[in-house]
Each structure stands twice: as C-alpha cells, then as structure tokens.
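Case study 2.
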Amino acid sequence: MVIFCTVEYVHGQNEKKHYFGVRYSYGACFFKDGMFSEKQLDGKTYHSAGFDYSYRFWENTELGLGLMWAVNLLDDRRHIFNPNGNPNIETTTSVNALSIPVYVKHSQKYFFIGGGPCLNYHPWFDNWTWGIGFELNVGLQYVFKSGLTVFVSPRGQINMLNLSGNENIKGIKKDVLSQLGISIGLGYKFGK
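Prediction:
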C-alpha cells in the first residue's frame, strides 16, 4: 500500500498529547516447540489487527496500550492415524492470540521506534492459557496538519506460550511463537 502525502508536516503536532489508531500486520511466524521431542509444528504466516491508544508524556515520547488479535498459521506434522496407512498427515492449524501490548514509543519527525511487553491470552490445544512476550516496531510515520497519522513499520514479536505449564528443568518456558513482519496503521492525534 502506497500513500502519497502532499500536506507539509506541522511541528504543532507535538502539542497534541493523545493518539488513537488502528493497525494491521502480516508476516512470517516461527514456532520453537518444547512440548514434542521432534519438530512437529512449523510456523508459516500470521495476520494481526487491533487498536492502539497512546499518551505523550515527555517531548516526543509516548506511553501506549493496545489490543490486538492475531492468527498464526502452523504446519502440523503430528502423527495422526490415517486409514490409508500413512501415519504422517500434514495439516495447517492456527494458534490465535489476544494480545495486550504496553509500549513506549519515541518519534523524531518522520521516524519512530517503539516496543514493550505484551500479555497474551490464547488457546493451547484444548485449553486457553496466558503467555507473555515482547514487541518491537521501527518505522516511518507522517502526521497531517489535521492530526491524521499514517505509518508503516517492520515489526517483531516474541511470545512465550503456556505459562501455566510445560517448563524445562530450569523453569524456563519452552514453547516460543515469534512473528516477523510489517505493520501499517492509521490514527489520529488530538488533545492538548
């Protein structure tokens, strides 16, 4: 998606303290499997969409809170009984997650960097469970005179799954789902 902007950037946007926006992300997901002794789940792609609110608390720095829904597609190579005699059937399964990122974002005119921890709630086989993670975004943004904001950024997120169990000997969570992709977003800066 390419957006051509013809309005000049206005430094007065620094006076606007609140931001509300939507974003969509797409990319590759990677799964490190700690539950099975051999690699039976492989990451493919993910899609996520959600909302962000942030408050500028110091010059070009904002504290933000989001609500995201992600669908992570995985190749499932677990042994499933097949009446034709082939025990290895490959199917695609999804791991969905409701994610609440809390982040700090620092902007310099057209560029920004942001990141922070995420709390995730997702199905894990037959149960829903909590997980934690970390998200990082670095990208380009443009703020129109009206406060309308558009951005595009590469993003990465690492999630530790199944906090209620499945630990290794040292107590570190073994199942990790990572995402690497690109985000696009549209928002509005307002208030003083």
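The mean pLDDT is 80.
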